[in-house]
Design goal:
Blueprint (H helix, E strand, L loop, with lengths): L2 H18 L10 H43 L4 H25 L5
Helix pairs in contact: 2-3
């Protein structure tokens, strides 16, 4: 066997040795850590919901301005734009109220 083949064989076994050491996980925290993690996730869910509300409100204002400009210039497709904006508003309401309730969370 050449020197390059020996080095290649040794390098092939290094990742296996590193992966074998990752099996020692400390589970001593138990249910307290799980409860803390749940509280943290629910808190972050509220913050993400508020950020989504802020982004959706900006998009709604921009879409309303685009509809207003379309009305003033006499372009076609105003009804389609209005229905799209209404559908987006209904979706954000549904996504923020119905989906968490479906999975058992009260937001």
């Amino acid at each position: 066997m050449s020197k390059a083949n020996k080095i290649l064989c040794v390098l092939c076994f290094i990742p296996y040795a590193a992966l074998a050491k990752s099996g020692s996980v400390n589970y001593s925290w138990g249910a307290d850590a799980l409860a803390t993690m749940h509280d943290f996730v629910v808190t972050m869910m509220l913050y993400v919901l508020y950020v989504c509300y802020a982004i959706a409100s900006v998009f709604a204002v921009v879409a309303a301005l685009q509809i207003y400009i379309k009305m003033n210039t006499g372009e076609e497709g105003i009804a389609k734009s209005i229905v799209s904006l209404l559908g987006a508003c209904l979706f954000i309401i549904g996504a923020s109220i119905v989906f968490p309730a479906f999975f058992g969370y009260r937001v």
